[in-house]
User: Which sequence fits this backbone?
């Protein structure tokens, strides 16, 4: 499976990069970055760090949009820290950003191999929306897109809105409104991917540099999630959207129409999910659950397969 990962690392984005690198069926064509969890500069450095740890030496990391389409950038440093990837001792990346812009990279890569590339979007949807506006043919040319974002029950930034959609609702409205094969993996799914002590023990048992790094990332991320969201174990959101395309049985879906609220005083960034009446009118696949054991096994096996040297 050929994959382009658009992301804003971010602890859970970094874990998704480890999953992509270590899974035998995934061929990472590129990693593109978007401002979100931290500034564009920091998330791009972090993507290079994650690619370094994952052993993705020849995979281009391409920087993209430095803020939302209309709104000001509001980063998530209360969760991801000042660097965007706080916790482990800093790592000097041996992967460096490639030339060019994420939007062009996405367009060129997808159009060069029609029907073959899966887009996995793990941050605000700014790059993807601009790519659609610049090259509408993208919607037909991708195999599919899997998005970590939204929810049909609750938010994590506001009662109604999840961070990635809340950060750039106008971009999300473009992306959810496009005619393509779209899977939404929202908080309803990812709040079942909890990094409990039991899960942590599985990664400690692997005793590799990548597993150790993951453990250090998760220790910081657990503490900030406790402080900000009062969650005992943190939800590891972003790898769920990749797991959903690697093995669809891990994320069961239902068909639904999804609209993005852009105007609400209290609900901007909400994904309004209609499983009923209008489910066939512009339908998307909406994640409704997670096979948690299978998810953690998928991730642990991928991390175990990563190179021991970096
Ligand atoms: C999403 O927001 C970000 O902080 C995470 O990386 C994830 O993509 C969860 O709401
Ligand atoms: Ca993210």
Assistant:
């Amino acid at each position: 499976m050929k994959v382009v990962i658009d992301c804003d690392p971010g602890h859970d984005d970094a874990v998704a990069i480890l999953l992509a690198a270590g899974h035998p069926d995934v061929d990472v064509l590129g990693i593109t970055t978007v401002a979100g969890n931290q500034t564009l500069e920091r998330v791009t450095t972090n993507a290079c760090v994650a690619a370094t740890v994952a052993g993705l030496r020849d995979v281009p990391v391409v920087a993209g949009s430095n803020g939302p389409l209309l709104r000001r950038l509001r980063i998530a440093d209360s969760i991801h820290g000042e660097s965007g990837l706080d916790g482990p001792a800093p790592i000097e990346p041996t992967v460096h950003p490639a030339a060019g812009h994420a939007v062009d990279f996405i367009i060129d890569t997808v159009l060069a191999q029609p029907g073959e590339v899966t887009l996995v979007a793990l941050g605000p949807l700014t790059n993807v929306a601009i790519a659609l506006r610049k090259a509408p043919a993208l919607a037909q040319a991708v195999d599919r897109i899997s998005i970590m974002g939204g929810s049909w029950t609750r938010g994590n930034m506001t009662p109604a809105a999840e961070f990635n959609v809340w950060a750039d609702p106008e971009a999300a409205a473009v992306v959810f409104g496009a005619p393509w094969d779209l899977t939404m993996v929202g908080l309803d799914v990812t709040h079942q991917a909890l990094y409990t002590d039991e899960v942590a023990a599985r990664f400690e048992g692997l005793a590799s540099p990548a597993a150790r790094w993951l453990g250090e990332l998760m220790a910081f991320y657990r503490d900030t999630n406790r402080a900000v969201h009062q969650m005992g174990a943190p939800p590891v959101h972003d790898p769920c959207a990749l797991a959903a395309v690697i093995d669809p049985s891990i994320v069961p879906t239902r068909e639904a129409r999804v609209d993005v609220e852009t105007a609400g005083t209290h609900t901007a960034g909400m994904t309004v999910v209609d499983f009923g009446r209008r489910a066939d009118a512009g339908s998307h696949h909406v994640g409704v659950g997670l096979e948690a054991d299978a998810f953690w096994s998928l991730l642990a096996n991928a991390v175990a397969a990563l190179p021991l040297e970096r």
Notes: The longest helix spans residues 209-229.
